[in-house]
Amino acid sequence: MQPVDFTTLTAACSELSKDWIPARLEQVYQRDRYTILLALRTLDRRGWLEISWHPQAAHICIGTPPPRQPDTFTFSQQLLHQLNGLALTSCRPVVPWERVVDLQFARRPGEPVLWHVYVEIMGKYSNVVLTNTANEITTAAHQVSPQKSSVRPIQTGQSYELPPALTGTAPALDEPFSRWQERVSLVPSALKRCLLKSYRGISPTLIEAIAQAADLDPEQSTDSLTTEDWQQLFHYWQAWLQTLATAQFSPGWTATGYTVLKWNAIQPVASVQELLNQYYTNQLNRQEFSQLQYQLSQKIQSLLAKLQQKIDSFKARLQQSDRADSYRQQADLLMAHLQEWLPGMKSITLADFETGEPIAIALNPEKNAIQNAQGLYKQAGKLKRARGAVEPLLAEVEQERDYLEQVEAAVAQVDKYQSTEDLEALKEIREELIQQKYLKAPDYGRRNANEDSSVNFHRYSTPSGFELLVGRNNRQNDQLTFRVAGDYDLWFHAQEIPGSHVLMRVTPGAEPEEADLQFAADFAAYYSRARQSDRVPVIYTEPKYVYKPKGAKPGIAIYKQEQVIWGQPLQAEQYLQQSN
Asked: Where does the NFACT RNA-binding domain lie (predicted)?
């Protein structure tokens, strides 16, 4: 993930100062443990200033509005208590070439500053600190005790100190070429390494951009550069400094990330704010998606393994109970042939009532024939009662296994991150597992259980133009089948295979063609656990014939008056590849 360097931070602050200052602070919202949003209102606009101290993605920019969820963090409440209604009057670096921004708040523009919010963009040491006019720390996003850092503790009530100054010479636009070349080439090494050690305020990303613009390899040795190479490199070095001096930035996407300089950009972006918001939102979503997908997959696999052990154990007990009839038969035989029993016998062989085949019966030599028969009757009754107790338990565990296999199929379908809807689908699955008591609720970030997730359905169009909706998880499956489905629609599902509910929206009077039915069946097969099969049986019926058993878990449905059509997952996959 590309970190925000001094150049990017300068570009962001320059644009914020131009377009968003002064602004009135109206609200503070903390989205997660690393991000706060400040609601700012200027004379002509309103927006949310996003400040992140994430270890890999610390940044500051105008971001997207927060979700409609309660804010349970104390840090945001402390900020709101002190800053509510004040004006943001300044946004600028505290010290040249350092990645620390000072957000200053006053009652009105032009009046004395009352509060400072220091935003430290420094990788894993990033932080946000609120201080008063006496430079005393009122609160901080991340408290640092003296035990963790004897150099620079950050705690409420202490004086705020800037991070230790960086070593290296500060870049200067008026530095002559000869002095610059001498400084960089003093100790021959890789160009990237020499520049990083010689000057402050520069980053590996910046050096790679300058080197690429000069058609050089940042890893090549400085003693291999020609005079022309040095001059070309110095030209872009000066161009970079000139951009900083004039604040004429050119935000855009590169092949590997983003840039605020005009070199190497493959697609321009309207503003630095939009650039940073899109990049870090996307990167953090991808990171969260991967972590959440792994967490859910591992949890479900663990639960399924435990359930299978229970199933195997119950089935073994049922097999034992199958011997109940055998014990009863032996007891009946023994009672019918009491005269053949002799004291001290350890076993007796008697002929079967029906087949006449000999049956060996083990006996307790310390008991008589009647007592042995009573013991066999008792054992048979015990096994019969065990079957009556185990069978409902087995059915319950198998039902739970079927449900979790349905959830596992839903997680497997969201196999890669393509949009925020994919992450939302996984979050809904996590929330479902929390509600079903399979996962513990996190201390933050709980979703609203009543939040409408219909916008996250997969949406496609059949050959005749009918809308096809596909649930991404069990919550959406229930919503699709029991809330969205209309009287004229058609409901599809892989036959007796965990998978998504698929709904074809049919307008009154319209009749889907065979191609439409096949299209829907292909997607029902594709979004099922049998995705890798060539052909999958898919049932379809009207939604009025689909029911949810009383007390059933999310995503579970039974149906009747169904018809079967063979779905081909490969056809759906080819359609998706062509549409992308």
From this structure: 457-550
Distances (CA, A) of 211 to 88, 195, 214: 38, 11, 5
57 phi, psi to nearest 5 deg: -140, 35
pLDDT at 455: 54
According to the model, what pLDDT value does residue 454 have? 46
Q: Measure the CA–CA gap between 148 and 154, rounded to whole angstroms.
A: 10
Secondary structure of residue 304 in the 3-state scheme:
helix
Question: What are the backbone dihedrals phi and psi of residue 506, each rounded to the nearest 5 degrees, phi first?
Answer: -115, 125
The pLDDT, as a whole number, for residue 443 is 55
* Nearest-angstrom CA–CA distance, 162 and 40: 26
pLDDT of residue 168: 79
> What is this structure's pTM?
0.72
Q: Are the C-beta atoms of 315 and 394 separated by less than 8 Å?
A: yes
Residue holding tokens 């829907």? 520
What's residue 491's pLDDT? 96
Query: d(Cα 482, Cα 455) in Å, to the nearest integer?
Result: 16
Of 118, 129, 116, residue with least CA distance to 156: 129
For residue 209, how many other CB atoms are within 10 A of its CB? 23
Give the separation between CA 147 and CA 338, rounded to whole angstroms. Answer: 86
